[in-house]
Specification:
Low-confidence stretches: none
Number of helices: 14
Structural class: alpha/beta
CATH architecture of the largest domain: 3-Layer(bba) Sandwich
Distance between the termini: 72 Å
Radius of gyration: 23 Å
Shape: globular
Number of domains: 3
Bound molecules: flavin-adenine dinucleotide, 1,4-dihydronicotinamide adenine dinucleotide
Strand content: 25-35%
CATH class of the largest domain: Alpha Beta
CATH topology of the largest domain: FAD/NAD(P)-binding domain
CATH superfamily of the largest domain: FAD/NAD(P)-binding domain
Largest sheet: 7 strands, mixed
Number of strands: 22
Length: 463
C-alpha cells in the first residue's frame, strides 16, 4: 500500500483529463493522471474522434476515386482492402495515444494505470494503492446509450466502437439515430458499399441544428444513397446468426413494420460515465440527467473535487472538454478564466461537412431577437467549382441593430475549417461588416464566408 501526495489528481485521460493534467503540470502543480484504459487519450483518441476521422478520410478517398475521378479525367478502378484501411486507422490511433504518453513524460505528469475510486475528499484509491491530493478532477467521460430491451453485442448490434472495427462491409446497415455518430459512421459504411438506412425518432435529422441546415443535409445525404425513416422508432431488435430483425413503428404510434439488417448501429446519444468512482458514498450531487453537478469553477458539491468534460453538462465535444481542462487547471493554479459556451463550434465530418456556432435562426426567433440573414452558395464560388464541390452554403446571422454576428451555419466543402473564422470574429464581438471588410484570399472557399457576410447587408458581389 503506497501513499503519494500530489497537488492534483486527474481521473481519466481523455481530452478533458489529459489536457487538464498537462496544463496543471505546466503551471508547476505536482500532477498525476489515472487512466483505466491501457492507452491514453480517452474515448476521443481510442474509439471516437480520431479513428472515426481516419475512416471518414479513407472512405472519402475511396468514394472519390470510384465515383468522382472519372468526371475530372482520371480513370481508376479502385478496390477496397478493408483490413488495410482498418490497420491504417489503428496506426493513426496508436500514434496519437503514444503522443500523449510522450507529452505526459515531457511535462512530468505521473501516469497511474488502473480504475480510480475517490474514497474520501483528497483521497484516491487505485487497486491497492492510495494517493492523496489537494484537488481531484473527475474527467471520466461518457458511454453509449442503448434502447430498452436492445442489447449491444458489438457483433451484430454495435455501438460506435463496434462500427469502427467491422471486419467486413455489411450488405445492409440500420442506424438507430440520425445524429452526429449516425451520419458520420453511416456515411463511412455507405461509401464502402453498405445499403444504409437511418431510423430517426424526430421528424428531421440533426436535432438542435439550424432548420435550413437540417433540411439541406437530409436532402444531400439522401442523394448520396442513405435512406431515412424519420418520425419512426425502433421498438425491438433481435440478433440472430444471419442478422438482426427489427420492428419499427411510427413515433406517434401506429402500424409496425419489420426490417432486417446485417448490422445495426445504435447511435441515440451518450450518457455521462462515473461508474466505480464512489460518488454515491461521497454524496456528490448529480443532475436529473446523471451528470455531475458543478458550479462556475467546475467544483462539485464536495469541496476540492472538480469535474469537466462529457461527465458534466454541455455539449459532449472534445474541444469543450479540453477548454474546460485548461481553464480549471489555471483556476487551480490561482489564475482566472471563463468559457463562452455559446462559442463552441460543432462540426460533422461527412462530405459535405456541416458546421455551426452560436444561435440558430429558430433560437433567435424564440428569443425575440431581431436579426439579418446573409446566405451564399458554394455553387457561386470559383474555388469550389474548380474542386468540383459545389454543394451547400454558408449562412450568417447578425443582430439587426448592432450587426454583431450571432451565429453561423454551414454545409459544404471544408466548412469544419471555415467556421473558425466566424468563431474568432464572435469571440471578439465582431460584426458581419468586419468579416465583409476583411480581405479574403482568392480563389479560396473562405470567400463564401465573406460573401455571406456581404449578403447580410444585401450586397454580395458574385450572386
Ligand atoms: P473521455 O474521452 O470519454 O475520457 C474519459 C476517460 O476516463 C476514458 O479513457 C476512461 O477509460 C477513463 N475513466 C473512466 N472512469 C475511470 C476511472 N474510474 N478511473 C480511471 N479512468 C477512468 N468530439 C469532437 O469534438 N469531435 C469529434 O469528431 C468527435 N467524434 C466522436 C466520434 C465518436 C464515435 C464518439 C463516440 C465521440 C466523438 N466525439 C467527438 C466526442 C468526444 O470523444 C468526447 O466529447 C470526448 O472524448 C470527451 O472527453 P472527456 O475527457 O470528457 O472523456
Ligand atoms: P446525438 O445526440 O447526436 O444523436 C442522437 C439521435 O438519435 C438524435 O437525432 C435523436 O433524436 C435520435 N434518437 C434518440 N432516441 C431515438 C430512438 N429511440 N429512435 C430513433 N432515434 C432516436 O448522439 P450520437 O450521434 O449518439 O452522438 C453522441 C455524442 O457524441 C454527441 O453528443 C456528439 O456531440 C458526440 N460526437 C461528436 C462528433 C463530432 O463532433 N463530429 C462525432 C460523433 C459524436
Amino acid at each position: 500500500m503506497a501513499s503519494e501526495k500530489f497537488d492534483v489528481i486527474v481521473i481519466g485521460a481523455g481530452p478533458g483529463g489529459y489536457v487538464c493534467a498537462i496544463r496543471c503540470a505546466q503551471l508547476g502543480l505536482k500532477t498525476a493522471c489515472v487512466e483505466k484504459r491501457k492507452t491514453l487519450g480517452g474515448t476521443c483518441l481510442n474509439v471516437g474522434c480520431i479513428p472515426s476521422k481516419a475512416l471518414l478520410s479513407s472512405s472519402e478517398k475511396f468514394e472519390e476515386a470510384g465515383h468522382h475521378f472519372d468526371a475530372i479525367g482520371i480513370e481508376t478502378n479502385p478496390k477496397l482492402n478493408l483490413a488495410k484501411m482498418m490497420a491504417f486507422k489503428e496506426d493513426v490511433v496508436d500514434a496519437n495515444t503514444k503522443g500523449i504518453e510522450f507529452l505526459f513524460k515531457k511535462n512530468k505528469v505521473t501516469r497511474i494505470e488502473g480504475a480510480a475510486e475517490i474514497v474520501a475528499p483528497g483521497k484516491v484509491k487505485v487497486g491497492k494503492d492510495e494517493y492523496e491530493a489537494e484537488s481531484i478532477v473527475i474527467a471520466t467521460g461518457s458511454d453509449v446509450i442503448s434502447l430498452p430491451g436492445i442489447e449491444i453485442d458489438e457483433k451484430r448490434i454495435v455501438s460506435s466502437t463496434g462500427a469502427l472495427a467491422l471486419t467486413e462491409v455489411p450488405k445492409t446497415m440500420v442506424v438507430i439515430g440520425g445524429g452526429v455518430i449516425g451520419l458520420e459512421l453511416g456515411t463511412v459504411w455507405r461509401r464502402l458499399g453498405a445499403q444504409v438506412s437511418v431510423v430517426e425518432f424526430l421528424d428531421q435529422i440533426l436535432p438542435g441544428m439550424d432548420g435550413e441546415i437540417r433540411k439541406e443535409s437530409e436532402k444531400i445525404f439522401k442523394k448520396q444513397g442513405i435512406d431515412f425513416k424519420t418520425a419512426s422508432k425502433v421498438t425491438s431488435a433481435k440478433s440472430g446468426a444471419k442478422g438482426v430483425e427489427l420492428t419499427i413503428e411510427p413515433a406517434a404510434g401506429g402500424k409496425a413494420e419489420t426490417m432486417s439488417a446485417d448490422i445495426v448501429l445504435m447511435a441515440v446519444g451518450r450518457k455521462p460515465y462515473c461508474q466505480g468512482l464512489g460518488l454515491d458514498k461521497l454524496g456528490v450531487e448529480m443532475t436529473e440527467r446523471g451528470q455531475i453537478k458543478t458550479d462556475e469553477f467546475f467544483e462539485t458539491s464536495i469541496e476540492g473535487i472538480y469535474a469537466i468534460g462529457d461527465v458534466i453538462t454541455g455539449p459532449m465535444l472534445a474541444h469543450k472538454a479540453e477548454d474546460e481542462g485548461v481553464i480549471l487547471a489555471e483556476m487551480l493554479a490561482g489564475q482566472s478564466g471563463h468559457i463562452d459556451y455559446n462559442l463552441i463550434p460543432g462540426v460533422i465530418y461527412t462530405w459535405p461537412e456541416v458546421a455551426n456556432v452560436g444561435k440558430t435562426e429558430e433560437q433567435l426567433k424564440e428569443a425575440g431577437v431581431k436579426y439579418n440573414v446573409g446566405k451564399f452558395p458554394f455553387m457561386a464560388n470559383g474555388r469550389a467549382r474548380a474542386m468540383g464541390m459545389t454543394e451547400g452554403f454558408v449562412k450568417i446571422l447578425a443582430c439587426a441593430e448592432t450587426d454583431r454576428v450571432l451565429g453561423a451555419h454551414m454545409i459544404g466543402p471544408n466548412v469544419g475549417d471555415l467556421i473558425q473564422e466566424v468563431v474568432s470574429v464572435m469571440e471578439f464581438q465582431g460584426t458581419a461588416e468586419d468579416i465583409a471588410r476583411t480581405c479574403h484570399a482568392h480563389p479560396t472557399l473562405t470567400e463564401v464566408v465573406k460573401e455571406a457576410a456581404l449578403a447580410v447587408h444585401k450586397r454580395p458581389i458574385h450572386i
